[in-house]
Structures are given as C-alpha cells and as structure tokens.
Design goal:
The complex is a heterodimer. By secondary structure, chain A is of the alpha+beta class. Chain A contains nine helices and six strands; from the N terminus they run αβαβαββαβααβααα. Chain A has two domains: 205 residues, Multidrug efflux transporter AcrB transmembrane fold; 77 residues, ACT domain (Alpha-Beta Plaits, 2-Layer Sandwich). In chain A, α6 runs antiparallel to α9 and α7 runs parallel beside α9. Chain B is elongated and about 110 Å long. Chain B is α+β, with helices and mostly antiparallel strands. In chain B, 40% of the residues are buried. Helix content of chain B is 55%, strand content 16%. Chain B contains 18 helices and 15 strands. Classes of the chains: A alpha+beta, B alpha+beta. At the A-B interface, β5, α5, α7, α8 and α9 of A face α8, β15, α14, α16 and α17 of B. β5 of chain A pairs antiparallel with β15 of chain B.
C-alpha cells in the first residue's frame, strides 16, 4: 500500500520551536498593547442590520439625525449595495427599545426599509457573559490538563497545554492584526480549537506511550520521531477533512458564520502544526529534565 | 467473536429503524412540504425561522420598594429609600444581589429591617426577613411567568407560532416569539406592567401651591433650574398644566429628584399625559408648538388593576363622544363597582385620570354618580394599541416592572438566507468529505462513507428525541462532526494498513487495527467532548445548539465508526468479498 514517512521532526524541532516562540511573543505583545476588540456580547450595545429599498443614500444625514435624537454616538456602516437598495449596520450603545429609532427611520425612509436583524445586549448581561466565557476557557483547560495527567503523565500534560496556549495566543494575535472582534461565537470556536488541537496531540501521545511500552530501552528521541511519522498520515488526513468542512463553512455558511469559520481555519492549521512540532518536543524536553533530576537525586 | 455477528446486525438494524422512524416526519416536512407531520419534526431555532428573543429582568429596586410596608411614617420612608439606594449602588458596583447588599448594610449599621417589613414577617431577625423577601421574589417571578403566558396566549398574533416563555435564573425570563415584524410594538406589549389606576386629579390651585413651593426651594437654595413659572402653563381645559415637549424629560427628572419629590409628596403624585398636543401659538413659526399635559393626582387610586374585569377593544358606537374611534370597554368587580359608585358620587365635577403604566390615557370630568361600573378608555393611537392594552389588562398586572436586558431579532428573510446557506454548506461539505475519503481509501472508503451517512441520520434522530432545536451554529457543529468523525475511521484504517505492512493476514490486521485504535479514539474524543460540555454551560441559544450537535455527533460517531464498520468488515471477510481488493 502507501509508503511510510521518515521525517526527522525532533531534529528540526528546535528551529520550529524558536520560530513559534518569536510569533508567540509578538502575539502577546499585540494582545497587550494593541488590545483585542470585544463585540457587544461582552461590552453591551445594540447592532441593527437594515435593508433600505430607496434611492435616499444620504448616510451622513442618517448618522447625524440618529446621533442627535438618540443622544449617543451611532456608527453607520454600509455593507452591501445593489440595484434594489443597500444594507446598513447601525451600532450604538445599548437601546432597551428601538421604538425611537424606528420612528426616525420611518421619518427618513417611510416604509422603504426593513429590519433584518437586531442584537441588543444590556451592559449587565455583557459583564456576565465575559465572566462566563473566561470561566469556560479556564475550566476546560483545567479539565483537559487533569485528564491528560491522569491518562498519561505530567510532562505530556504540560506539553499539550503548551501547544494549546500556542494555538490560542497566536489565533488571538492574528485577530488583533485583522481587527476582528471577539464574540461568544468566537469563544465557541476557540474552545473547539482547544478540543481539536488536543485530539491530534493525544493520538500522537498514545502512539508514543505504546511504542515506549513495546521498546522500553530505546532512546526516547527516536521513539518520538518514529511515533510522529507513524501517525503523520492520520494527522494529515484528519486535518484535511476538517479543513475541508471549515473552508466550506467559511465560503458558503453566510455572513453569520464567517468569523466563526475563519477562527476554525486558523485553529485547525495551527493545531496540526503544534501537535507535530510543539507538543512532543516540549514533552521530550520536560521528560529528559525530570529524568536527569531524579537520577541526580538517586546519586 | 463471529458468532455474535447476527446480534451486531440486529443492533444496527434496530438503531437505523428507530432513527428513520424519528426523522421520517422531518423529511416529509422539510423536503416534501408535508404540513401534516408538523408536530413531530426537528424544530428550527429562531436564527433560522426568524423571530424575536428577549430576556427580561425583574426591576428589583421597584420590587423592593413595593414589598415594604405600605404605612410607613415619612421619616421611615425616607430612611428606607436611602438604605435601598445605597444597597442598589453597591449591588451594581459589586455585581451582587440587591437583597444581599441590603443585609450587609443593615448588619453593619445595626438597622432592624423589621421596621420596614413587619408586613412580611413577625421575626426581628434580619436574616429571617431576607429569607421572606427571597420567597416573595420567587412568588413574584412565578406570578410574572403566569401573567406573561396568559398575555401572550391572549394576543391574536403573538399567541401563534409556538411562543415560548421560560424563567432564566432567579430574576429573569426569556420570551421567544416567531414571525414578528414589528419589534418595538412586541417589546412594548411584553414589557408593560399593566398597572391600571383611576385616580382623582387634584385641583389646579393645589397644584399651583406645590409649584410655588418648588419655586421657592429653587430660589432659596440657588438650584440650577429655571423657575417653573416659565416652563409650565396652567391648562384652561383641565386641572393640569402644559409643558413644552422639549422640557418634559428635564422636568420629569427634576420632579423625581430629592428633595423636590418630598415637596410634591403627601399623597400626591405627578403623571404625564400619553398624548402630545399641538398648538399654533406663534403664527410666524411654521411648525406648531408641541405640549404635553402634566397632572397632580392622588397617590391613593380609587380603582386599581385587581378591580377590573373583561376589558375589550371595540370601535365606539355612533352618537358617543368617541364615535368611530378605538376604545377599550371594561367592567368592574363587585367591590370595584361599590367603590366607584361612592367615589363618583363624592367627586362630581372633579376630574379623574385613567392611568396605565404611569401614563394618563384620558382624564374625563365626573358628571354623575356612576353605579354600573362600566368604563370606557379612549385616547389610543391605533387599533393595535387599543387591542394590546385590552389584552394586557385582561392578563393582569405584573407585581413589579420588568426591564428588557437583551434582544435578538432575526427578520424572516435573513432566516431564509441562513437556512439556504446552512443546508448548502452542509451538502457541499458532506460531498467533498465523501469524495476525499473515497479517493484516498478506495474500497475501505466506501465502508467509512456508509458509516458517515448513517452517523448523520442517527444524529438527527437523537436531536429529535432530545427536543433540540436546529440553529445555524448547530449545523456548523454537525458539519464539524462529519469532519471529526471521519477521524475515527482514519485512525482505524491507518492502523490496519500498518498491520498489513507487518505481513499479517487481513483478518488479523483488521482485528489488531480495531483493538489498538479503540483507546486512541476514546482518548481523542473525550477532550472534544469536554470542551463541548463546558461550552453548553456558557452559551445561550445558538451556541448551545453548536455544543449540542457537536457532542451528540461525537458520541454517535463512536457507534458508527467503530461498531458499524467493524461489523461490515467481518461480514465481508466471512463471505470472502473483501479479499479480491487487497
């Protein structure tokens, strides 16, 4: 059947590790100093998506009228325009009722507009959601760390968590560059990445553990390299199938799913990379260190 | 291991038969538009079918105000208000419950809450009283839920399309209405307290005394507020005053602030008319001036919500004052009728305000003693408003106001778009995966693909039995499951290939492949399940849909990708079908 691989992953891993650390640090820098924008899910606010079916295209007038009447800044962005009319997204501080806004729109456009979507989140709910999201990420990382420590070993656990942090932080770094907003949907995507990236890592770890059991006296470095190669075809096939679906979601899933699918694309690529080049080398490094320590204690 | 083959097939056939039984109505409904099966289908979430989802929160500040003893001395009332204000500020700052902060302040400052709540509990222990306040809150929430269900069931439009009203946490409720086009109207309808009062309007001289006192306070204390004489004009056709529309909000705030509200109060309260009056005061200005009436009314209403019956919106008969207009007719209970007769008898030629949720709808003069108890309210802007108000009055008054804290609205066309893009990406995604697996694994791929398709069928069936709703993120979760569930088969097949490379025969290779892969698959799926599980706790609505389909998909894929494919392999081996491909 198909050929087997023999790529010296461990040998090259220090170059990849070094590159990753640099990108990781740049991402941290961007997150801290540029900051990540949060969506209204977390800071509260109102977003209204309307389609206007008239030739009245005076957005400045609309913005000024809305800002004056609602006594808060209103951001008006045009997202689409075709022969029938155009589509706008209005963003403001939290409005508990849109009746004033409807009145203004009625005055300007009569009935030649329709509201496609309203998303309105009070500041209190926003606070609660950010607390929940933070807890969810922490709890899931904790549970996963615990699970791997129980099923494998502490060095495996740290290795996989390092790979996870690598994936999450760099994804967030890319977000700051692209000015993407973090919403609840993005948090869901990030958590999915956590699950997915780990999935890859665990399959490799499983093989390493099995090979160590079968050849207890072989050099660890060799075993790890062998395991990475043995599982490589699976790693690639699964990454490709997952990438196929997330790319399809990105292209055809509509505007609602676009940021979600984008996060998953970035995550799947990073997840595959990190389970090959980050998780196992770190695990190996820690394992050697622990072994040396215990040997020294023994002397 | 082979003798249980028939048993394995029995399980598979049974699972498939059950799944088809559960999803058959959905197939009939969604693919063939057969409306007969509507009750047994997988429901679509609001993001797909379009509609309004709002979260409402009990106004705890007002609730606590109303809960305290009605007969408090002026001094205690003020004390209680200060205490509540402080607790409210702390609870906003610390993001804690209002009554917990109340207890902390009371304990720290040695205040006996019993003073304000002797109506609730005889105990002098603050904790006991807090416990009773909590009970009252639970009771109030149940009450609000019941009233809301009635109110929405009562409505000729919102009652349709399976509305859902549910409690969320201790002080919130979620209302979901499908197929709504006028969002503001629906929100106004739901949020109404339905606080109905008939209250005596105080005479203009009495109001003018209070205005005089407030003006005196403004001058004496150098308050940065214009003299009320310049803002308020006595109305010639009523006992109220007129205020220019631009100043309404400002004056309203000023009257509610301390100590102005103390000057007004002594069984009085200020209410505004719901209508705007236009006058051409100045012929040189093209736009007419807009005014709103303000009344001083008795704080002790003659009739309140509990005493009214059978409200109904009708067009007023010809020959009456409001001929041809939409009005709400209502009747009174026995006690109501008695009180109303006495009240009208005593107050002939006085004005009475019909107040709903703090706004005056009309303020007629009493001409005769009314002993029948039937009353008519006019002054509505539209037929819808009259109908809405009749329905909220019928469903009853809420024990405290509820505030909208979150709104999600999806218009019908956007929902249709999402259904289209969701099903399209599902089809494309599935098709590409099936094709890829087929090309990469050839004959093995056929088996994996059968497992994949059966997995989807079973997932839909499980979703139906769980009463889960399908959302757009849910579809994304399903598609992701497809991508991930192939993984189990990939792990198994790669293992079998390795075993074959070790020159094992096919049977041994397949057996070893499955055995060795099982633990790996289990470990890998547990982590994804863990994150999906955590996610189902934080997310509401659509995100929950994602977490649900993802976890159901992963669990079901363990069955199809391991159990089902292994059974197929063994059957093929037994019948010598598979050999010629290898």
């Amino acid at each position: 059947m198909r050929h087997t691989f023999n790529i010296p992953f461990v040998k090259f891993s220090k170059y990849f590790l070094a590159t990753s650390i640099v990108i990781f640090c740049i991402s941290i820098y961007l997150i801290i100093f540029k900051g990540i924008e949060t969506s209204i899910d977390f800071r509260g606010g109102t977003i209204i998506n309307i389609s206007i079916l008239s030739d009245n295209h005076d957005l400045t007038f609309l913005r000024d009228t809305l800002s004056k009447e609602l006594t808060s800044g209103v951001n008006v962005v045009e997202v689409e325009s075709n022969s029938d009319g155009y589509e706008l997204i209005l963003t403001t501080e939290y409005l508990s009722n849109e009746s004033e806004l409807s009145t203004i729109l009625n005055n300007i456009y009569n009935t030649d507009y329709k509201i496609n979507k309203i998303e309105s989140i009070g500041p209190k709910i926003g606070d609660e959601l950010s607390k929940n999201a933070r807890n969810a990420i922490l709890v899931s990382l904790l549970l996963i760390g615990l699970y791997i420590t129980i099923r494998f070993d502490l060095s495996y656990s740290i290795g996989s968590l390092a790979a996870l942090m690598h994936d999450l932080i760099i994804t967030l770094g890319i977000f700051t560059i692209l000015n993407y907003e973090i919403s609840i949907a993005i948090i869901a995507a990030l958590l999915t990445i956590v699950g997915y990236s780990l999935n890859d890592t665990i399959v490799i770890y499983d093989r390493i553990r099995e090979n160590i059991l079968n050849n207890p006296h072989r050099e660890k470095k060799k075993i790890i390299n062998e395991s990475l190669n043995q599982t490589l075809s699976r790693t690639l096939v699964t990454s490709i199938t997952t990438l196929i679906v997330v790319v399809v979601l990105f292209m055809y899933g509509g505007n609602v799913l676009k940021p979600f699918a984008f996060t998953l694309i970035v995550g799947v690529i990073l997840g595959t990379y990190s389970s090959l080049f980050i998780a196992s080398p770190i695990m190996l490094f820690l394992d050697e260190k622990i072994n040396i320590d215990t040997e020294e204690e023994g002397l | 291991m082979l003798n249980n083959l028939q048993f394995r097939w029995a399980i598979i056939v049974a699972a498939l038969a059950c799944s088809f039984y559960f999803i058959y109505p959905s197939i009939q409904f969604y693919l063939f538009q057969n409306k007969l099966t509507e009750n047994k289908i997988i429901k679509l979430g609001l993001d797909l079918k379009g509609g309004l989802n709002i979260i409402l929160e009990l106004d705890e500040y007002i609730f606590m105000h109303r809960l305290s003893k009605k007969r408090l001395s002026k001094q205690s009332k003020l004390e209680y208000k200060n205490l509540l204000d402080q607790a409210f500020a702390n609870s906003t700052k610390n993001k804690t419950q209002l009554y917990e902060e109340l207890l902390i302040i009371a304990e720290n400052e040695g205040i006996k809450l019993n003073k304000y709540f002797s109506n609730l509990s005889k105990s002098s222990n603050n904790k006991d009283i807090l416990e009773e306040i909590k009970n009252q809150k639970t009771y109030a929430m149940n009450n609000i839920l019941d009233i809301m269900r009635n109110r929405i069931g009562e409505h000729d439009q919102y009652g349709l399309g399976e509305p859902s009203i549910q409690q969320l946490g201790s002080n919130r409720l979620v209302v979901e209405l499908a197929g709504i086009s006028d969002v503001s109207r629906a929100k106004e309808y739901i949020q109404r307290t339905a606080d109905f009062e008939l209250a005596l309007v105080k005479k203009q001289p009495e109001f003018s005394d209070i205005i005089y006192n407030i003006n005196k306070y403004i001058i004496n204390n150098d308050v940065d507020f214009p003299s009320l004489d310049s803002l308020m004009l006595p109305d010639r056709s009523s006992e109220g005053y007129l205020v220019e529309e631009n100043y309404v909000e400002q004056i309203s705030k000023f009257f509610n602030s301390e100590p102005v509200s103390q000057i007004i109060k002594s069984n009085n309260k200020i209410v505004w008319d719901n209508d705007i009056l236009s006058f051409d005061l100045n012929a040189n200005v093209s736009e007419p001036s807009k005014f709103r009436r303000i009344y001083l009314v008795s704080d002790n209403p003659a009739i309140s919500s509990g005493m009214i019956q059978t409200p109904k919106a009708v067009v007023s008969d010809a020959g009456t004052d409001n001929a041809g207009q939409w009005v709400v007719n209502l009747d009174m209970s026995k006690t109501g009728r008695r009180k109303w007769a006495k009240f009208t008898g005593e107050n002939i030629n006085r004005q009475v305000a019909i107040i709903l949720d703090g706004q005056v709808y009309m303020a007629p003069f009493i001409r005769d003693k009314i002993s029948t108890g039937s009353t008519q309210i006019s002054g509505f802007a539209s037929m819808q408003e009259a109908k809405d108000i009749a329905s909220v009055l019928k469903a009853g008054e809420l024990p405290a106001p509820i505030n909208i804290v979150q709104t999600n609205y999806i218009g019908p066309s956007l929902g249709e778009d999402s259904i289209r893009s969701g099903s399209f990406s599902m089809l494309i995604g599935m098709g590409l995966i099936l094709l890829f697996i087929l090309i990469y694994y050839k004959s093995f791929g056929i088996i994996a693909n059968i497992a994949l398709i059966i997995n989807i069928i079973i997932v839909f069936a499980v979703l139906y039995t769980m009463n889960a709703v399908l959302t757009l993120p849910g579809i994304a979760g399903l598609l992701l499951t497809v991508g991930i569930s192939v993984d189990s088969n990939v792990i198994i097949f790669e293992r079998i290939k390795e075993e074959l490379r070790l020159k094992n025969d096919l049977y041994v290779s397949i057996k070893n492949g499955y055995n060795k892969a099982f633990i790996t698959i289990l470990d890998a799926n547990v982590t994804t399940l863990l994150t999906a599980f955590v996610l189902s706790f934080i997310g509401s609505g659509p995100i929950k849909g994602f977490a649900t389909t993802l976890s159901v998909g992963i669990v079901c894929s363990m069955f199809t990708a391991i159990f089902l494919t292994k059974t197929i392999f063994i059957t093929l081996l037994n019948n010598n079908i598979i050999k010629k491909y290898i």
